[in-house]
Amino acid sequence: MASARGQPLQALGERELNSRAQITPLKSTRKLEADVYEVKAPKESVPKEKPKKKKEKLSALCKTPPSLIKTRTGKDYRRGLFLGEGGFARCFQIKDDSGQLYAAKTVAKASIKNDKTKTKLLAEIKIHKSMHHPSIVQFIDCFEDDINVYILLEICPNQSLMDLLKKRKLLTEPEVRFMMVQIIGGIKYMHNRRVIHRDLKLGNIFFDADMNIKIGDFGLASVLKGTNERRYTICGTPNYIAPEVLTGKKTGHSFEVDIWSIGIMLYALLIGKPPFQSKDVAHIYERIKINDYHFPPDKYISDSARTLIEHILKTVPGLRPSLDDMLLYEFFTTGKFPNKLTVETLVAEPDFSYLTESQSHMNFLQAKRDSGLIQSSHMTPVEILKTDLESEKPKTLLPQSLSPGNTKSKYKEVTEPVLKQRTSEDPANSKLGRARRLEDHGMPYKQSRGHRNKSVSNAILRQECTNILNGMVISERQARIRASSRLPEIEPKTPILISKWVDYSNKHGFSYQLSTDDIGVLFNDGNTLLRINHSSSFWYIVNNPNEGWLAQEYSTTDAPAHLHRHIEITEFFAKYMKTNLCKVSNDDDSIMDQDEIFLRRYTRDEKYVMFEMSNGSVQFNFKDHHKICISQTGCTITYISPDRVCKTLALSQVFREGGFREIVEDIGLEEKLDMIKCALKEKIHASLD
Fold it and tell me: Record-annotated residues binding ATP (predicted)?
């Protein structure tokens, strides 16, 4: 946590609060970090700052809370020692009746002088409150008294990455790999919920008691209504601001600004200072615009780290690697990777010489799993509602929607839980990806406000086609810019495929068998029954245009009467496919730890059959018996040959090499990929009509 001048907050026995002040004026600084909230200039260039009268900090209006802080809900807190202050808030340690410690970010109501400032504060609370991820500082509660607004956050006792760098001067690559995987996991979670952080920096990345990463301070965060929306406010911290932010209204900025910040942090941790560091802010901005940085010859940095940083710090946002792409780089896939960090890391360089290549590989995979980077699931985008910004009671600032009574329930996030490996002994563990689960006894799922009177199903399909198409375009572009360097291969992983299918839509529907041996029938009414292999349960998935896909799990021995006919039809197709059809690909045990998925939509064309799966991927079965699956991000391709040999690679690598190296025959890959792009475009345009 940093103050307005970039200094760390006062520590309390080696403990520091995990969130800096929300609004901080732009100032020139010689420190590693300088805070900035909102800047109306520059337009073409940033003029040198003229001496100004020193303004009183808004945090100075914040009176010290009483020793006993009483809330309207009856839960009281005892104030501890002062932790520090920023430009907008003061921070205190507080304790509840059970002795649990929290960090209390305290904002004076007197400092909230207009609707704009109030909106910023309430938006920060709403966004942070809606975040639930192991790499994000946990929002606990918020309340107010007559003088202050209090934001309660989990305590991060081991300070920030900024403090660590100041003590250690620079870090080793194994440490940085571990930290960056957790950071990338947290950022991917935010981006999946359409939130841009916009102030990612070392001072806003904290360590919990177990030395795991926690991203904090959502004071500059913004929610995008759509993936193509842009923001135009010039904001951030000078050393970390992306070049497209400085252009303001000319181009706007989006999720790529957080990608840029990852590159800055990576450089700073390995070299010891940010790449564009200068004595004044104007010079920092000029260096950022022209990409003027270099790697000091007296500081060691591996070629793999240098390559990753160079690719992230591209001036053109579209040329930067995606979060998923970063993890494919040699910097992450090779080299030592610890299974955890210890508190000794805070004061001394750790010894990782004991780590073997296989241990490092397993630790890398586990870190990705723990950070949510392997299992992909649909997440409800954050939404700022009018009720989040307007209080229902006079003389109060916090609306009811953000008040303590609603903290854990009103905006409970709807996500798909991670699937454990399926076993016949434990069918209850079965979870279905990409479909919301109905409440008990088949009661309808509550309709979300943002989806009323809209075709949510079509919107989801359109967005997923758009994501794949954009990813394919970016992969092709990355293949060109990486032509001079070796592209790291991805970890081989067989996707879930449709291995058999029968089109009986003239009477019942479209039946298919997955490579997991799950059997599904997409009935003519748009609903699906998915029978789980080695289990006594099945899913019935209703396609509700206004709410998307809603799923309920049943036992085959206790199925409702209205589904008996559906079960009979599914069993008929299962026996038929087992007897008469052969599978698309060979069995692979790696598919057993993936989500159960289902077919959302299929399209039959003269040259191919297109399958759109619930995990966002698409599969094309071509007439010549070659098959291609493209991942939901558009960055991974799986090819299945007519003799059922399966190969998975990064699509950018396939573009760069002009095909699959191990496949000698001409499979017409370029033509097939063009057909896939055209099919995706047609789906996108058709859904807009």
Answer: 109
